[in-house]
Amino acid sequence: MAVGLTVALRHRFGRRGRRLRAAARRRFGWERLRPGQQEAMEHLLAGRDVLLVMPTGAGKSAVYQLPAQLLDGPTVVVSPLIALQRDQVAGLLKADAGGAVAVNSTTSVDSGLEQVTAGAAEFVFLSPEQLAKADVVERLARARPSLIAIDEAHCVAAWGHDFRPDYQRLGRVIARLGHPPVVAMTATAAPNVREEIVRALGLADPVEIVRGFDRPNIALEVRRFVREEDKSKALVEHAAGQDGLGLVYVATRKDTERYAAALAERGRRAEAYHGGMRAAERTRVQELFAAGDLDVVVATSAFGMGIDRPDVLYVLHAAPPESPDAYYQEIGRAGRDGAPASAVLFYRPEDLGLRRFFTGGRADAGTLLRVAALAREHAGAVPARELAGLLELSASQLTRLVNL
User: Which of 391 and 305 is assigned the larger pLDDT?
Assistant: First the structure.
């Protein structure tokens, strides 16, 4: 009996594989699927949840795009950045893959959701913040999604990602949408991060597919310094002497301006980028970078997610990032075309003190206790806006405290 069951399962998965490969050629012109892609796709078609860890540039998006062609009902894609949503929608429309819309602050929410509920769009891209709105989730639920994809799923993990706290609420959204097959995708996630992703999303006995993170075309180097001025001078000289496109990551907003100005003086087309800039200015820098009209962007960690230039030749760090995972994400933006690239960390031991300052304090214990006490006193649901006003907190601060 066991042998017969094994043969039946092989036959079933073989049939799914043939359907996937045929659809890949017909719809997208892909002659072959990369290692890990077909395995993840077959499990999704079988109704399983999948946690997928694949290197940057390995084709994670294909893992939901292709099964979506074979399942009835729309595909909900949780994507963190408007620029990334825009690129994905453009690519799917070009491929004539069943229609795609983005629902975000720059588009008509009503129009986008109407296309989904009317069956005119196979893919709908939303941010976690859009899915925090009850009316948006209710309208999506009526469309009966057949697949949910969570991009940049490492943002679900509570540590280091407090700037997007609504990622922590996606488990409830998935349940409200009927929990169709879910694929959570990221380029890197340590075992404890994977556990947090599974727990927070409420994944049901997921298949974990981990394809490693080695990028052998990226050469890694650390250059150690004693004095800050020596480190800064060496980094500027190194970047100014590089050909091609590059990124320089720094720890503070002030440093983005300082290094960008120094590189501009050396004749490089350099721009600063950080989260405190106006949205229009950030968009301008992103578009210049995407068009190849810059030599280097000097940025905080706010820059990078959703930026998919294949020909970045180098990534320099003026200070250690917040974690090894963050370092991998940032250097992984180099060499996506497979060509040789380099990643250099310019380092002083004192630099770690700033990182400890940024990551050390999770929350004020007194405020955390007040949130818990007020929530308990209500003995049920309490409007977030009301609670935030009472505690004099912003919406994001309140969400982070509730998550904790």
Answer: 391
